[in-house]
Amino acid sequence: MDLCHVPATREKGWYLALMAPNVKGPNYAWLDPSRLYCHPQGLQDCVADLLQPFQGDAIDMVAGIDAMGFILGAAAAATLQKGFLAIRKAGHLCVQTVAQPYSDYSGREKVMEVRTDAISPGLRILLVDQWVETGGTMRAAIELVERLGGIVAGVAAICMESSEGGKWIQERYKCSHCVPPRLQPRFDQHQ
């Protein structure tokens, strides 16, 4: 798809066609949304679709998850006129942090951390990531926010797969994603 082309009718998720399939093998995610971020209208519509369910909700801050969640999270924070907090993979912050181990979508054990001075008790945080596949990364971010006394105001991602972890998150938190119901089975099966 042309990075300048904007369809005459823009249904929710039209920009999903901008994503590119994995050509490098099983150590990589099955789709790469980064081309979507290069398309000005695609990025704007994606962020608008992610934020639509939270219109009128109390959100004090947006937190994006390392690394691709930084893009959508920062765009969402700018749209909402809220601050942005980066939840990082361990070892990147030079300040006091709290850490949480987790397994990512590939099954690799990792550790995520967040600075201890950014979340005060009762702060309502919208968590944003590019993708929720198994839910391990997002659950670690949720744990960090709640351990510091923050409230998860919602979870937003381009896609939330219907995995056990994805369902766990959707059952407990207000969630938003961009995949229309008719396409969800294809995304769940990585087609």
UniProtKB/TrEMBL annotation:
Keywords: Cytoplasm, Glycosyltransferase, Purine salvage, Transferase. GO terms for molecular function: adenine phosphoribosyltransferase activity. InterPro entries: Adenine_PRTase, PRTase-like, PRTase_dom. One of its GO terms (biological process) is purine ribonucleoside salvage. Pathway: Purine metabolism; AMP biosynthesis via salvage pathway; AMP from adenine: step 1/1. GO terms for cellular component: cytoplasm. It is found in: Cytoplasm. SUPFAM superfamilies: PRTase-like (SSF53271). Its EC number is 2.4.2.7. It catalyses: AMP + diphosphate = 5-phospho-alpha-D-ribose 1-diphosphate + adenine. Residues 56-177 form the Phosphoribosyltransferase domain. Transmembrane segments: none annotated. Belongs to the purine/pyrimidine phosphoribosyltransferase family. Homodimer. This is adenine phosphoribosyltransferase.
